[in-house]
Automatic annotation (TrEMBL):
Pfam families documented for this protein: Na_Ca_ex
TM stretches of this protein: 69-93, 105-124, 130-148, 173-196, 208-230, 237-260, 275-292, 304-323
Membrane topology value: Multi-pass membrane protein
Organism lineage: Bacteria, Pseudomonadati, Pseudomonadota, Gammaproteobacteria, Cellvibrionales
Subcellular location(s) per record: Membrane
Domain (Sodium/calcium exchanger membrane region): residue spans on this chain: 4-144, 173-318
Alphabetical keyword list: Membrane, Transmembrane, Transmembrane helix
Protein's organism: Zhongshania borealis
Protein name, as recorded: Calcium/sodium antiporter
Amino acid sequence: MTLALIAILGGFALLIWSADRFVDGAAATAKHLGMPSLLIGMVVVGFGTSAPEMVVSAMASLDGNPDLALGNAIGSNIVNIGLILGITALISPISVHSNIVRKELPLLTLIGGLVGFILLDGALTRFESLLLLTGFIGLVSWTIFVALRTRGDNLETETDQLLLAQAMPIQKALFWLVVGLVALIISSRILVWGAVTVAHSLGVSDLIIGLTIVAFGTSLPELAASVIAARRGEHDIAIGNVVGSNMFNLLAVIGIAGVIKPMGSFPADIVHRDWATMMLMTVGLLVMTFGFRKTGQLNRIKGCVLLFFFVAYNTYLLLDVMAK
């Protein structure tokens, strides 16, 4: 039990460190290969902040713990909206004025509805998982297309040249890219082993551990990115990071886990309790941030509301575990 707790804490620490090194290496490598800065921000960093969820869920499925993988994906979305955006809004209210974000939030809601429809029968087949992965590939492809089409050539060239001059050498970038990826896999295995061991020792299900402890740990990169972006006045990045990560979680994290290990059955609570909570918070975020006549804003009051729902949900999970 003690060793498992140490594994969870050590796994979290290594996970965050490796994700940071992976993003740095990937971004610098992409810059040396000529990718525009806008594309790096939307795709490479988006991948980086969602990498912990992807790798942890993949490792959990390989280890025969699909409930933990599914709980990690849905739980991370709840953490991202309730805890991360709630804390970020309390620190620095977020103005939402980007047309891209206002388009992505309705899209996130539609993707959430699709995932709920797929999970409604209490199973996740490999075909359904492949559909989710296809949607993920389509989403990334469309993002790349829009980024390349809408960038300003002259400004982008000057910006790219400046960033390339500041980027780490290609050899160092490739080194951290590989080291970060390897460390991500190792830390994910340590974290999953520790979480599953603790869950079994306490008689708690893999699903609950995935929804809470693992979901919080894998969402730490999003927390850091959103808080830093909000404090710097990059409001669209702060909320766009969470919206993009949640899309990745629903399409890629669940898709990868289901392709590795199709789920013949899982607890009905995943749909009736966890998915429903995620959708309630997603729709709530859409309503809170959509400016019907002016710029939408996620102020401190709305941040408190999001935090309240997050705390209420986790309190319910705790009481449910204690009752059993």
